[in-house]
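debug: dumping io for the single-chain case to check the tokenizer round-trip. Nothing else runs in this session.
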Amino acid sequence: MLLALAAACGDDRGPTGDEGIASLGDDEVGPTSSEGAEQDGESGIKFDMLDEDFGENVGDCGGSGGMMGEPEYEFSIIWIGNSGEGTVSKIDTVTATELARYRTGPGDNPDPSRTSVNLFGDVAIGNRSGSVVKIAADIDRCVDANQDGVITTSTSASDVLPWGSDECVLWYHEVGFDTGPAGNTGGPRGIAWDGGE
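debug: decoded output
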């Protein structure tokens, strides 16, 4: 049996072995030390370094999980694709309230499937119809496309705007799809962010 462990926030410190690596006995797993890792004058990054080895603001899990040097954003949103409706719901996970609902493409049903959220809370949705759409989570990130001084956007589950009129829908891209076995159509599946998009 292989036991894999990952470090997370908290201070559940337990005993360490002779080499500064957490013991995997009956006791709790604790932190490690970089002191035991340097051998034969080697230097550089080691797998068993303490937070202090990295400097200020590293290992501090406070806030919303932003990266070093990036502003902290506080939000608690989950995006849920409504496949049968061709929409995606923005839900506040603290209050369980649906804050907004957006169309994910033109036509009757682009069939939203996979979602991916960036550090700002914005979502990219892969539609089974062969397209991807990006929607801003925060109204400050929306674009006043008609330049009327007001962001026109959905404000509830029942306020779904016509395709092309919601100014929090930042972009839409047709990527096409292949027809698979048994008539399966395969639109985009995996979605990844490329820094800062």
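debug: round-trip ok. The CA atoms of residues 73 and 162 lie 29 Å apart.
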